[in-house]
Amino acid sequence: MADKPAIVLVHGFWGGAAHWGKVILELRNRGYGSLHAVEMPLASLAEDAERTRKMVKQISGPVVLVGHSYGGAVITEMGDLPNVTGLVYVAAFAPDAGESPGQISQEYPPDAFENIVPDSDGYLWVEQSKYHWSFCADLSEDEAFVLAVTQKAPLASTFGDNVTVPAWQKKPVWYQVSTADRMINPDNERRMAKRMSPRKIIELEASHASLASQPQAVSDLIEEAVSGA
């Protein structure tokens, strides 16, 4: 599909680029060749946005950005690049100007909020023993255990970083709501999605880790964004 946009996948908190593994394989099997998954430091929104921006600038031709969780804030912050043709949010934050993921979460607290704990170095972790229930209840126990052990913790301060100018004000948007999400309140996802006036909103009976538990449905939405963009 050389004539199709490239797809750049942006991970969230408590996981790295490999969280997109099942979606990557699904898209490859559908014939997509230009697939990219950025690995972010999760140190600040500015740094994570710049890391993603650099990857997109290396791609010649149009790009569809796909953000999961905090990755939605990242594509909101940097997705105004000229070659970005669409934004796909997968159970993701979509802050408005002056909003942060932390502020949004406090307005509609998720069920697993109390299972996020800081360490002495300022990083936030999902308690390993509660990761399965909190993050990915619709995955197997073994899959969840591996994700819990390999989780990538963000600096706590990243939660408070505000978006400046939201890219979704100018770019076409698609949004996936996870109805059983315990990391972002599903009503919060619906609220964020609605105010962006997306081309399409889908709801999946899924945990926060819909990209891993329902990769086919998530890939369907990405394909719609590729076609629509």
Write up this protein.
The radius of gyration is 16 Å and the shape is globular. Helices cover 34% and strands 17% of the residues. By secondary structure, the chain is α/β, with parallel strands linked by helices. The strands form 2 sheets. A 6-stranded parallel β-sheet has the order 2-1-3-4-7-8, sandwiched between helices. Strands 5-6 form a two-stranded antiparallel ribbon. This is Alpha/beta hydrolase.
Unreliable residue stretches: none
C-alpha-based Rg, rounded = 16 Å
What general outline do the C-alpha atoms trace? Answer: globular
Trace the largest sheet across and list its strands.
2-1-3-4-7-8
Please tell me the overall pLDDT: 97
* Percent in helix: 25-40%
By DSSP, the count of extended strands is 8
Binned strand content = 15-25%
Q: What's the story with the biggest beta sheet?
A: 6 strands, parallel
Number of helices: 9
Order of helices and strands: EHEHEHEHEEHHEHEHH
Q: Gap between N and C termini, in Å? A: 14 Å
Derived structural class: alpha/beta
Keywords: Hydrolase
InterPro entries: AB_hydrolase_1 (IPR000073), AB_hydrolase_fold (IPR029058), Sec-Metab_Biosynth_Hydrolase (IPR052897)
Protein name: Alpha/beta hydrolase
GO molecular function, one term: hydrolase activity
Question: Which terms would index this structure?
Answer:
single chain, about 230 residues, alpha/beta, six-stranded parallel sheet, two-stranded antiparallel sheet, 9 helices, globular
Give a quick rundown of the structure.
This protein is α/β, with parallel strands linked by helices. The protein has nine helices and eight strands.
